[in-house]
Amino acid sequence: MKTLKQTKYILLSAILILTIAVPLVALPDAIAHDPAWTIPTWCYVAVTNNPIGIDQQMDIVFWLNAYPPTANGAYGDRWTFNVEVTKPDGSTTTIGPLTSDPVGTGYAHFTPDQIGEYTVVAKFAGATITGEPFPPDWTPFSFGSDSIGDIYEASASDPVKFTTQQEKVSQWQEPPLPTQILGSSS
């Protein structure tokens, strides 16, 4: 015959098991919102150096106003960009597709081959969040998983102009490290 104390332990154990089991069964298969959200985006671009000498390499940096919500280290979604460069003669070069880093930014090297004014536009292709590639320990409750299925609309940056000249432009020089420790008298 079971004692009152044993019955209480059995009842308490059953309540604890149900407290854990019921929410797991009652939760929907996905925790994303329904319907999926459509989110407008704003794309940006910057160039360095301006002006630049002909045949000198420069950097074009591009980013979106939002980071990929499922990005987590090497896993999760990334943004895809193309960079259009219009040369002084009117011809166009497309760099890309280029994949962003986890915070939604990226860069490309470019070497202008004509003297004059160039125009650069970065274009974000738009994306539907998938969460892929999933990390090895992915669960439906992982970082950003509530955004799966959301649509980030395509956008393009405002045009940015830079000038190429015949003369070379000196590149950034790192200042030298101090040779003396502050507070020392040597």
Describe what this molecule looks like in 3D.
- The protein is mostly beta strands and 186 residues long.
- It has a single domain (31-165), classed as Sandwich (Immunoglobulin-like).
- 12% of the residues lie in helices and 32% in strands.
- The protein is built from one helix and twelve strands, in the order H-E-E-E-E-E-E-E-E-E-E-E-E.
- Strands 3, 5, 6, 8, 11 and 12 form a six-stranded mixed beta sheet that branches. A three-stranded mixed beta sheet has the order 1-10-9, with no helix packed on it. A three-stranded antiparallel beta sheet has the order 2-4-7, with no helix packed on it.
- A hairpin with a 5-residue loop joins strand 5 and strand 6 (92-99).
- The longest helix is centred in the first third of the chain and has 23 residues, at 4-26.
- It starts with a helix and ends in a 21-residue tail after the last strand.
- The model has no long low-confidence stretch (mean pLDDT 86).
Number of domains: 1
CATH class: Mainly Beta
Poorly predicted parts: none
- CATH architectural name: Sandwich
Give the helices and strands as they follow along the chain. Answer: HEEEEEEEEEEEE
Fourth CATH level, the homologous superfamily:
Macroglobulin (MG2) domain
Query: What is the β-strand count?
Result: 12
Radius of gyration: 27 Å
| Discrete helix count | 1
Please identify the structural class as seen in this structure.
mainly beta
Shape annotation: elongated
Strand proportion, as a percent range, falls in 25-35%
Classify the fold: give the CATH topology.
Immunoglobulin-like
Could you give the distance between the termini? 89 Å
Percent range for helical residues? 10-25%
Mean pLDDT across residues: 86
The description of the largest β-sheet is:
6 strands, mixed
